[in-house]
Write a structure and sequence with these properties.
Elements (H helix, E strand, L loop, with lengths): L4 H4 L7 E5 L6 E5 H35 L9 H24 L6 H6 L7 H33 L4 H35 L7 H32 L12 H12 L1 H9 L10 H27 L13 H11 L3 H10 L28 H4 L11 H5 L8 H14 L1
């Protein structure tokens, strides 16, 4: 039997799926490609949310395991990091709950009839929006705290100018997000899209991207200044301080949220970049801090020959101290109080508008140095902020004493 012209041009993959509306008489047709596209989006988005939640949960457990004793978690930066990771897990759980609720079921979604949807399902979406707002506030606070730690030793005009600009960007981002959350929740409860307030939605996206770009540039500023000052020379891995490691990791890794923030303006099939922007920031900040902690622990280790790598000839001076002194604390003190020259290599963590010699703290008092007047390397603010990492070692005590002498 020869097929008719209609049968020859019929494509079963593009036909409509027809069902009746709420009145039982009105037919509603939905093309199969539209159904397939919706399924693809639902699966890809839920996988995206699940991977984000799993990564943040793993990072949260790592932070809790590495940060010992638990009293160190009371630091503002540690609290913000833990809170951001936990908030991402809760937010993504609520976002996934939407795709499992009757709101996203076939009939309700394609017919527009949500009369059978329980009100509690809408409240879950409202809670997800509120937690998303909380995540923006926590991430902005963590970025602000990190930025302040990096510029607090800069000259006052630069320090307060950058702090004021960062605060303005943060307030704009949080303000637009608050307005967006209110409008979005009202639309969820009314089951109508907020077309009249589309400018608020765009404003929230713009300010969020602006915030990510700003803090990425700020975190990379010290790194760029060091590269320009020293013609591209970076410290070796054996002589990195915790603050230098923090500057490098934060500066380089913050490029990842910048990429995701830029992707929010594109249109990609089965890919949602909006949630990845804040999630990547929540993952990157504690990752940089953990790397800085490991550097600090390595440098503070009594058996590590690179503890005093910043000081020329410190290895030979330390060898004699090890023969005469039994404890690690006395070894470090004896080595530092011997004939160690001043640290004269400009550091990317402390120099801004002044030479390295203008900011130089004293590790030991003149009596302990035997009147030799030996100067210690400049101590950066975040070394003070990370003092709990190696607070049990004598090196940490000497760094804190150097910070006290430098400040007063």
């Amino acid at each position: 039997m020869v097929p008719s012209p209609e049968q020859q041009h019929f494509d079963p993959l593009t036909q409509n799926v027809t069902f009746l509306g709420p009145d039982g008489r009105t037919p509603i047709g939905v093309p199969i490609p539209a159904l397939d596209a919706l399924d693809d989006v639902s699966i890809s988005v839920t996988l995206n949310y699940g991977i984000q939640a799993g990564a943040c949960l793993a990072m949260l457990l790592a932070v809790l395991a590495v940060t010992t004793p638990a009293a160190k978690l009371r630091r503002p930066s540690a609290l913000l990091h833990v809170l951001a990771l936990a908030t991402v897990v809760v937010r993504n759980g609520l976002l996934v709950a939407y795709y499992l609720s009757p709101v996203a079921h076939f009939y309700q979604l394609h017919s527009g009839d949500f009369s059978s949807v329980p009100r509690s399902c809408l409240y879950a979406s409202v809670a997800g929006n509120v937690v998303s707002l909380a995540l923006v506030v926590v991430v902005e606070a963590a970025l602000m705290n990190q930025a302040w730690a990096m510029v607090t030793l800069w000259p006052d005009p630069a320090k307060y100018g950058l702090a004021a600009a960062s605060l303005l960007v943060t307030l704009l981002t949080a303000g637009f997000r608050l307005a967006f959350t209110v409008i979005q929740n009202q639309a969820v409860l009314d089951l109508t899209p907020p077309l009249a307030f589309a400018w608020v939605v765009h404003g929230a996206v713009v300010t969020n991207a602006l915030s990510i770009f700003w803090f990425c540039a700020l975190f990379n500023l010290k790194l760029v200044m060091h590269l320009v000052r020293n013609r591209g020379i970076l410290p070796s891995t054996k002589t990195l301080t915790s603050m230098e490691m923090l500057v490098m990791t934060n500066g380089v890794l913050m490029v990842v949220p910048v990429v995701f923030a830029g992707l929010e303006w594109g249109t990609f099939q089965n890919f949602e970049a909006g949630s990845l922007t804040l999630t990547s920031v929540a993952l990157i900040l504690p990752l940089g801090t953990m790397a800085a902690q490991q550097i600090s622990l390595r440098n503070a280790s009594p058996g590590n020959s690179n503890n005093l790598a910043y000081y020329p000839n410190s290895r030979s001076a330390g060898s004699s101290g090890l023969r005469n002194v039994g404890s690690a604390t006395t070894t470090i003190t004896t080595t530092l109080s011997s004939a160690l020259p001043a640290f004269k290599i400009p550091s990317m963590t402390t120099s801004c508008g002044s030479g390295p010699a203008t900011r130089r703290g004293s590790v030991l008092s003149k009596a302990e140095r035997g009147g030799k007047g030996v100067a210690a390397p400049p101590v950066d603010h975040f070394d003070f902020e990370l003092r709990q990492i190696d607070s049990t070692s004598a090196l940490a005590e000497e760094r804190d004493q150097g910070r006290h002498d430098e400040t007063f």
